[in-house]
Specification:
The complex is a heterodimer of chains A (about 280) and B (about 100). Chain A is of the alpha/beta class. Chain A has eleven helices and ten strands. Chain A has one domain: Rossmann fold (3-Layer(aba) Sandwich), CATH 3.40.50. Chain A has an eight-stranded mixed beta sheet with strand order 2-1-3-4-8-7-10-9, with helices on both faces. In chain A, strands 5-6 form a two-stranded antiparallel ribbon. In chain B, the strands form two sheets. Chain B has a two-stranded antiparallel sheet with strand order 1-4. In chain B, a hairpin with a 5-residue loop joins strand 2 and strand 3. The N terminus and C terminus of chain B are likely disordered. Chains A and B meet through helix 1, helix 2, helix 7 and helix 9 of A and helix 3 of B. Bound molecules: thiamine diphosphate, iron/sulfur cluster (SF4) (3 copies) and magnesium ion.
Chain lengths: ~280, ~100
């Protein structure tokens, strides 16, 4: 067995059923590989890491890995994660969510976690639909595309998760695709190193639901689509707006410094206790 | 003799069939077409000598079912490949 896979196996829970539950070719497995490689590089021990997820195909991810893991309710992963971080600030808390988890039912939690700048990393797999429950449209289903609940056409405009995170105040926002799995790993690494609310959006494919309904082909073809429509931030800076029309940017979208919530919170605690003068 | 030596130097690729779901990703994105699919859609190493040890099949496999042993001369082999056919791009932007 070669190094990369050996490393992955060190972090898998071998008492779980493998191969894992995801459909053949689903991008979530590729993202899991990138996540493990990135966490391994942080130098944190398994016990220092907490993975918190909601419900969905993406939400199943923590089940397979040997960290402290919490599989919570749909849309509420960030609220559980907030509690863990405030109670045990030394832990590295990573929140794994689908697009539905993060910006549909959990949208309010998402913007406020970003606004507060609480020290969490949100990893969001954006596959444009509710995968687990049968391919219903989500707030990231593009306008004009089909889903099982918009069989003629989605007539709602979609959220851009990364832009939403930037606007709401996240200090680090990166976007990658499962095709660009090495970039993904480096974005996660950067996000983990950041203090404050960091977000990595992962453009992935649900070929069995979204892909099939929209005639986008197999997992391979959907990954070819990712390859052909993603443009690095650096390259995009040299392109004209019309050239970028059907493209999306990948790379580091925002990296800035703002006081993290915990710092202010600790200060207030000291003031209240009288251990420090205001 | 030269042939035999070359073969020896090709990276060793293992496919773990019990976990493989025959999705075709490793085969489709192998830059040198070293891999191919059998009748069942499962991957196999068709041309071991073509493999440039880029590791992409392993990194993109959603099921951790294919592994490539890293060779010391891997970088040299890849650099040569890049020079000859940069459009195939194992090092395309963002990768
Ligand atoms: C409170 C609540 N509402 C609805 C559901 C049903 N439900 C389960 S997963 C899911 C959507 C999953 O979509 P997403 O978060 O994008 O994850 P994916 O499966 O696409 O990875 C829904 C609506 C639920 N489990 N709990
Ligand atoms: S339903 Fe879609 S998101 Fe869920 S495992 Fe299958 S391909 Fe992946
Ligand atoms: S290591 Fe690269 S060249 Fe070799 S089989 Fe895998 S993808 Fe192909
Ligand atoms: S990418 Fe992995 S699961 Fe898919 S065909 Fe190749 S070895 Fe099998
Ligand atoms: Mg989804």
């Amino acid at each position: 067995m070669a190094e990369i896979t050996r490393l992955i196996h060190e972090y898998l829970r071998h008492d779980k059923k493998f191969p894992h539950v995801w459909c053949p070719g689903c991008g979530i497995g590729i993202m899991l590989g990138a996540l493990i490689r990135a966490i391994d590089k942080t130098g944190y021990s398994k016990d220092d890491i907490v993975l918190v997820s909601g419900i969905g195909c993406t939400g199943r991810l923590p089940v397979y890995v040997d960290f402290n893991t919490l599989h919570t309710t749909h849309g509420r992963a960030l609220t559980f994660a907030t509690g863990i971080k405030l109670a045990k600030p030394r832990l590295k808390v990573i929140v794994i969510m689908g697009d539905g988890d993060a910006v549909a039912i959990g949208g309010n939690h998402f913007i406020h976690a970003a606004r507060r700048n609480i020290d969490l990393t949100a990893i969001i797999v954006n596959n444009s639909v509710y995968g687990m429950t049968g391919g219903q449209y989500s707030p990231t289903t593009p306008y004009g595309m089909k889903s099982t609940t918009t069989i003629y056409s989605n007539v709602e405009h979609s959220f851009n998760i990364s832009e939403l995170a930037v606007t709401a105040g996240a200090v680090f926002v990166g976007r990658g695709t499962v095709f660009h799995a090495k970039l993904l790993e480096s974005l996660m690494e950067k996000a983990f190193a950041k203090v404050g609310f960091s977000v990595v959006e992962i453009i992935s494919h649900c070929h069995t639901q979204f892909g099939r309904l929209n005639r986008m082909g197999t997992a391979v073809e959907m990954m070819q689509w990712q390859r052909d429509h993603a443009v690095t931030v650096e390259k995009a800076a040299q392109m004209k707006p019309e050239e970028l029309k059907d493209k999306f940017k990948i790379g580091v979208l925002v990296d800035r410094e703002l006081p993290a919530y915990q710092d202010g919170y600790d200060k207030v605690r000291r003031w209240a206790k009288g251990s420090e003068k205001r | 003799m030269a042939e035999a030596q070359k073969k020896k130097e090709s990276p060793h690729i293992d496919i773990y069939k019990a976990w493989c779901k025959a999705c075709g990703i490793c085969v489709a994105f192998c830059p040198t077409e070293a891999l191919a699919r059998d009748e069942g859609g499962y991957p196999y190493v068709k041309y071991p000598e073509k493999c440039i040890n880029c590791g992409w099949c392993e990194i993109r496999c959603p099921d951790f079912a294919i592994t490539v042993e890293t060779k010391k001369n891997g970088k040299k082999v890849r650099d040569e490949f890049e020079k000859e056919g940069p459009e195939k791009g194992t090092a395309a932007p963002g990768q």
